[in-house]
Amino acid sequence: MGRAHAQAAVDLGMSLKAICDTRKEVRDNLADDFGVAKSNCFSDAQEMFDSLGGAELVIVATTADTHCELVCLAASSSSKAVLCEKPMAVSVEQCDRMIDACEKSGTALAVNHQMRFMPQYALVKKELERGELGLLASMNVVAGCFGLAMNGSHYIEAFNYLTGTWPSRVSGHFTGEPFQNPRGPRYFDQAGEFLFISENGQRLKLSIGHDQGHGMTSMYATQFGHVFVDELQGEMIVTARLLEHQSQPMTRYGMPWDRKTIAFPQADNVGPTREVMSALLQGENYPSGGNGKKIVASLAAAYASAQKSSVLVSIGSNDNSDDQVFPWA
Fold first, then answer.
1. Pairwise CA distance, residues 308 & 49, whole Å
2. Domains of the chain by range and CATH?
3. If pLDDT is split at 50, 70 and 90, which confidence band does 70 have?
4. For residue 320, what pLDDT is reported?
């Protein structure tokens, strides 16, 4: 995971000052590939910061259960900025600690939710801003079993990017058993059906069941049309009711329409991460620690709903879920 981040930093003209990884082989390979002195390779993060101090940018590209400790260490070393992988942490309380530590030290904190820098979302936003589609009513994701925390978290960020709002309520239904993340035997995620609703009624639906084995598609339903996106194929189909018929009621769902297809390049791991880094270093338009916390709170509420027969649960309500620790990678 860290190799793509290192390449993104180098692409921005930065050089790696140090590497920390518990695996010697990984440290040595990265050091050789990116020109880092072996004396600046560490197996312990505290030792690294004690030896070298802070940096212009610290990248935390580890599993989620270590994010809080490492981000707080980076902040205490007076690092200027930290890019943390997603999900931000394994509890809402940990998110609060990370945000507080960075605020006290003046460290800028970003979470690597890259959706605003990816064409499949930027193009949808452009189509919505043209006005011909009207307001976005719902964002409907149908995909393979890619995990609520591992990838579903990204779509909560995308929903905020496209609507300017955050979910306030969620209904969650788990399908199948928790499944193991390939990053280790103690990491598990959930599959299922999830409905997130904002205060103004806009909806994000995730259909990511345990028995769904392929694809990443999104259907954006609007007042006057819809946008279908096949994210893996790199194809978008935009359908909009003709302007002269937009005064007709919503029940006239078969009015004449225009239709167009837009192709976009498939995203890689390096490019969007590079854009997040660049925005963080410039101090504007990056997914902040506050964003990361809202996403973790949304995930926690989805778990709470699934454990209560899928009732709607208010996100961020005082139900003791802030302290719950999840087995996410």
1. 44
2. 2-111 (3.40.50.720), 115-263 (3.30.360.10)
3. very high
4. 64
Cβ proximity of 86 and 111 under 8 Å: yes
Q: What would the DSSP string read from start to end of 88-106? A: --SSHHHHHHHHHHHHHHT
Residue 42: partners with Cβ closer than 8 Å, 6 or more residues away: 18, 19, 20, 27, 48, 51
Distance between CA 192 and CA 310 in Å, rounded? 11
Q: Measured between alpha carbons, how far is 271 from 124 in angstroms, rounded to an integer?
A: 19
pLDDT of residue 68: 99
| Angle (CA) 87 84 274, round 5° | 110
Distance between CA 201 and CA 198 in Å, rounded?
5
Which range, of 106-115, 168-177, 261-270, 278-287, averages the lowest pLDDT?
261-270
> Are 256 and 241 spatial neighbours (Cβ–Cβ below 8 Å)?
yes
Strand partners of residue 82:
58, 109
Please state the pTM of the whole predicted model.
0.97
- The reported pLDDT for the residue numbered 319 is 65
